[in-house]
Design a protein that fits this description.
Monomer. By secondary structure, the chain is mainly alpha-helical. It has 4 domains: 113 residues, Rossmann fold, CATH 3.40.50.620; 107 residues, Glutamyl-tRNA Synthetase, Domain 3 (Glutamyl-tRNA Synthetase, domain 3), CATH 3.90.800; 48 residues; 90 residues, Arc Repressor Mutant, subunit A (Orthogonal Bundle). Helices cover 44% and strands 10% of the residues. It is elongated and about 110 Å long.
């Protein structure tokens, strides 16, 4: 295999959808697996749809996810510039070459004229396609003499350059994921390659840039599969070797029906963008701002359309590079499962060291007066129950504030007629304990319960309720040890008073 070069080529028309991030990831993994280069190219030929800030968002998103590009805007290599708007001087030369060789032609048809033809076909139950069967009846350089064509261009008539698709041919194409694909060229239209405003369309700019940047593999979304025939034909027209193509499956809605959209995220309350995106209309949430870790997002995305063929689910980026293979990418769409995304995040969340989580927790709750050592110990007890840092307060608030209310159902279940007597005895026991470690508390209190020959629930339930305010939280004796003797006794006394 020649030196692998792949590209991620988004348009800066808004925030980068998670589907685009998945495409970038698969390109990155393939490049790294084969010792190649991951290139970012900004496809901004459609200036009407350009959105300020979108290019920087794309760069920031790749950086946050952990797979930044190696070559592209701001990281110049030998194949720049890497924005198509800065390469437009190249495209006309190649469009002219196709015209000179009879492989493309000027078309002067107005939008109104084409709309009339379209409606006429619809009235007859047909579909209008601008190609071999009608191009000699339309307003283009195939039916006009060269002098008239030159005159019309000189006086500023609007025109486009169309590709001359072949007739009566069966194209045999190959996709690295989908295998052999056959296309009848008679159903292809003569796509527009170049516009009179001096800008190429996606199709011409895309294949020219891929060729000039020596891209060896084009790994892109399934939505570009219908363009594969045209792109292969353009490579053939220029007599260039085409790169290998691989079209990734769609990312589907959580229901499995239809392509995942921003609306699905808004409706379901989950992010579909890597980073939040602010507009005048509001803020679209991002995985980063919602508390997801980049490693978790990357791991989650890798499994949207690919599987390693093993039971392993947790992969570091390096492990993903080692395991990745286009042959194990599925053809069928991959269902986006928000709960699975949370599961991945939880797995990576608990892997973090306690001090890192505590630091983030403190940053989110500057009102906390407890010292860092105490907060770090709290984190160590509760982090396995958390998915995000934002979950920590609900899981740990009782470590910082004594309960003032008690869960009504738990209160009814835990407090019996003899509970006050037992809790008063327990307070005496606790006051007499010198070694307030969790292990010693457990041995002492459980030993006392056993000696009284009463059920553990009769003591342990009201004890937990007094400390926490509800039937939740980590080990009771770990809670008591961290709160300390005085606070534990105060809370026991408070529930008695209640």
């Amino acid at each position: 295999m020649s030196t692998v070069r792949v590209r991620f080529a988004p348009s800066p028309t808004g925030p980068l959808h998670i589907g685009g991030v998945r495409t970038a990831l698969f390109n990155y993994l393939f490049a790294k697996k084969h010792g190649g280069t991951f290139v970012l190219r900004i496809e901004d030929t459609d200036q009407n749809r350009y959105v300020k800030g979108a290019e920087q968002y794309i760069k920031d998103a790749l950086e946050w996810c952990g797979f930044p590009y190696e070559e592209g805007p701001g990281k110049e290599g030998n194949f720049g510039p890497y924005r198509q708007s800065e390469r437009k001087h190249l495209y006309k030369e190649y469009a002219d070459r196709l015209i000179e060789e009879g492989k493309a032609y000027y078309a002067f048809d107005s939008a109104e004229s084409l709309d009339t033809h379209r409606k006429d076909h619809e009235a007859k139950g047909k579909t209008f396609i601008y190609n071999w069967h009608n191009r000699l009846k339309l307003d283009n350089s195939l039916v006009l003499d060269a002098t008239e064509v030159e005159q019309r261009i000189a006086r500023g008539d609007k025109y486009v350059v169309r590709f001359k698709s072949p007739q009566d041919e069966i194209l045999v194409l190959n996709d690295e994921i989908r295998g052999e694909i056959k296309i009848d060229t008679n159903v292809l239209d003569d796509k527009i390659l170049f516009k009179s405003d001096g800008m190429p369309t996606y199709h011409l700019a895309n294949i020219l840039d891929d060729h000039l940047m020596e891209i060896t593999h084009v790994i892109r979304g399934e939505e570009w599969l219908p363009s594969l025939a045209l792109h292969e034909l353009l490579y053939r027209a220029f007599e260039w070797k085409a790169p290998k193509f691989a079209h990734l499956p769609l990312i589907l809605k959580p229901t499995g029906k239809g392509k995942l959209s921003k609306r699905d995220g808004d409706k379901g309350g989950f992010p579909v963008f890597p980073l939040e995106w602010k507009t005048e209309d509001g803020i679209a949430s991002g995985f980063r701002e919602d508390g997801y870790l980049p490693e978790a997002v990357t791991n989650f995305l890798a499994f949207l359309g690919w599987n390693p063929g093993t039971e392993q689910e947790l992969f570091s980026l390096e492990e993903l590079v080692e395991a990745f293979d286009l042959q194990r990418v599925n053809k069928a769409g991959a269902k986006f499962d928000p709960e699975k995304a949370k599961w991945f995040n939880q797995q990576y969340f608990v892997k973090q060291d306690d001090e890192t989580i505590a630091k983030d927790f403190i940053a989110r709750h500057p009102e906390l007066t407890a010292n860092k050592e105490y907060i770090t110990k709290v984190v160590s007890l509760i982090k396995e129950r958390a998915v995000f840092t934002t979950d920590l307060w609900d899981l740990s608030s009782f470590f910082f504030e004594a309960p003032t209310e008690y869960d009504a159902k738990a209160l009814k279940k835990a407090i019996k007629e003899d509970t006050p007597v037992l809790l008063n005895e327990l307070i005496e026991i606790v006051n007499g304990i010198e070694d307030f470690s969790a292990d010693n508390l457990q041995d002492t209190i459980k030993g006392w319960i056993t000696s009284k020959e009463i059920g553990f629930g009769k003591v342990m339930q009201p004890l937990r309720l007094s400390l926490v305010g509800a039937m939740k939280g980590p080990d009771v004796f770990e809670i008591m040890s961290l709160l300390g003797k005085e606070e534990s006794v105060n809370r026991l006394q408070a529930i008695l008073n209640k």
